[in-house]
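Worked example

This section walks through a single chain of length 300. The input is the sequence exactly as stored; nothing has been trimmed or padded.
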Amino acid sequence: MEIRQLRYFKEVAEREHISDAAIHLHVAQSAVSRQIANLESELGVELFERIGRNVKLTPIGKIFLEHCLSALQAIDFAKKQIDEYLDPEKGTIKIGFPTSLAGHLLPTVISAFKKEHPNVAFQLRQGSYNHLIEAVKKRDINIAFLGPLPPKDNTINTTILFSENFSVLVPTNHRFAKREKIPLIDMREEDFVLFPKGYILHKLVYDACHSVGFTPKSSSVGEDMVALKGLVAAGVGITILPDSTFYDSIPRFTTKVPLISPPLQRTVGMISPVTRDLSPSEKVFHDFTIQFFKLLNQYQ
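Given that input, the structure is written out below as tokens.
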């Protein structure tokens, strides 16, 4: 069994068409057909059933595809580690991040890192909180920034970079806009604009409100930070967001007021898989990020 056969099999399985797979692989259709036939002969099973000009995985073909993808992923990762061992300064780092960390944390730390390591490339993947945790556990990515950090378990390592408070964002003409601080209970009659249910920031706000005895009334939802802030600026409602989301600017027609009684906080940091070592480039970035925020926290 050859790696080439596995790559040809993967392309045909994903495209369900031998000609399309051959075009993508930049080889002749006959070469793809021959390698698939050799693979089936070696395994002693049919991996595909032919349906007109298309092909479809057989039940055993679907099982083989799962193992094929894992094998190719391991091979690609091994090659990446060898390449980076030879020259860590020319590696590629895959990073996952949620929308709440996209505006400040991510560009700040990557920009600082690139000044010292200009030839390292990045592949960035934005995703929901639970999706990023699963991606690290499945080893699709090795580093993800999250806030709050999930509990450490036997599959993921966690590293706290900093903790932050939440503040209330209100329209400038709102009755809370001139307050120095706002107790959470004072917002029990307000209309909220929040992330959709299932988002971690939605859960944090809901749990905080429930802890003081009320359920927030959500008039509208937004799936990203810009949308939520825009809804507040338009006077649709108020929202509660982490302080780091205001570092660059507070939107026009809005006012940020610290939240108290109780204060709402979250940890922010990185997660990585327990079952696989970081590549040399990833290790350099991981250590750099820890040191970067350690120094940053000393000056704040």
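What to look for: DSSP finds nine helices and twelve strands in the chain.
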